[in-house]
Amino acid sequence: MKTITIKILICCLMLAFVGSSSFAQKKSNKKAAVLSDRQFWLQQMDKMVRPVLYNLAKDSLRIAMPQVTSIHIDNKELRIKVQYVEVLGRVLSGIAPWLELEGGSAEEVALRKQYREWAIQGLKNSLDSNAKDFMRYDISGQQLVDASYVAYAFVRSSWLWENLGKKNQELMMKSILTTRKFKPVFSNWLLFSAMNEAFLAKFGYDWDQMRVDYALQQMEQWYVGDGMYTDGTTFAYDYYNSYVIHPYLAGIASIVGKKTGSYNAMFEKIKKRNERYAIIQERLINTDGSYPATGRSIVYRGGAFHHLADMAWRKALPKQLSPEQVRCALTAVIRKTLESPTTYKNGWLTIGLYGSQPNLGDFYNNQGSPYICTNIFLPLGLPDTDPFWSAPAAKWSAQKIWSGEDFPNDHGVDLR
């Protein structure tokens, strides 16, 4: 009797095990849908940008946007006052090429339609002196910086400009003109003044060629070699060659080069330097999407690769870099810099590189500052049929090297 009982018990346990295994198998078969790289980028862009443009379109950005500043802030009250133009320019400059694009999947077309509506209505609210979200451009010198990102958004998307309407075009032009009152810092800030003038030139307004010439000639003096410039009179190992210098030089050259041939030789050198620095940038991306956390403004997250993203979008990558390897490298950066559970607080980006890291902030950082990282999304302006998106996944340089593959060595290039 005892033996029979034991056998029955064993059979019951076996049946329970088989049943639970079968359940586990069925459960594991229900895999979550795997997103394509483009779908992942769109998902992350939407998550990042939605609170900004949704609220601005509803004339509620000042109500919804947190008034957060760096713990190292120099003038909290002033930095909060300027954060609205700051976030507007940084967000629009990054998604402008995508707003310009036509076509794509039904889901993407619907999402773009919604963002186009929010962007135009939000811009109109920002220019309406009777709106709660009206934005002045004459509060502080910081707004010379911020206005240039707004200007760059229009440079990157004629659709955005054309759909603003004549009245608001004039208001925007005058707003950007007000920043001429601010003297740029003797640094990359010269390019902010130049971009504002390039914007005026592109859309048929009177522009100050001297401001552009001064910036171009001074940057030429600050070129130090191997694709890199100093940011002012001294060299700093940070990401300002990518945050500002290379993308701005490329953007300015694309407009001014059509207005005058005076800078042809310089622009050819700029093109070659753009290519060399893109090679350096791609090699900085580690196998897991991390990269050296050096220099100021490191809380700009993926904005550290503004230049590489800009080169991909403009289809200007050097032959050493395939579009698909750059896509995979930038995807890894996006994933790494946004995966921390403290990246967002109540839907808004925190100050940090990997989540909320207050001590990484600089004295000029406010809630709008980290949104410069939207510039990593520039290649969304390429159609999904472009090789950047359609080509099969490929290893980037770090993955090839650190998996033991034989790989071409790297040398500095003299491009003076």
Question: What do these coordinates show?
Answer:
With 416 residues, the protein is an all-alpha fold. It is built from 17 helices and four strands. The strands form two sheets. The chain has a two-stranded antiparallel sheet. It has a two-stranded antiparallel sheet with strand order 3-4. A hairpin with a 2-residue loop joins strand 1 and strand 2. Helix 2 runs parallel beside helix 6, helix 5 packs antiparallel against helix 6 and helix 7 packs across helix 10. The chain is globular, with a radius of gyration of 25 Å. The N and C termini lie far apart (96 Å). The N terminus is likely disordered.
Q: What would a concise description of this structure say?
A:
The protein is mainly alpha-helical. It contains 17 helices and four strands.
Helices and strands in order, then pairings?
Layout: H1 2-29, H2 37-57, H3 61-64, H4 76-81, H5 83-100, H6 106-127, H7 142-156, H8 158-162, H9 166-177, H10 189-202, H11 209-221, E1 223-225, E2 228-229, H12 240-259, H13 264-284, H14 306-313, H15 323-338, E3 344-345, E4 348-349, H16 387-390, H17 397-401
Antiparallel strand pairs: 1-2, 3-4
Helix pairs in contact: 2-5, 2-6, 2-15, 5-6, 5-7, 7-10, 10-11, 10-12, 12-13, 12-14
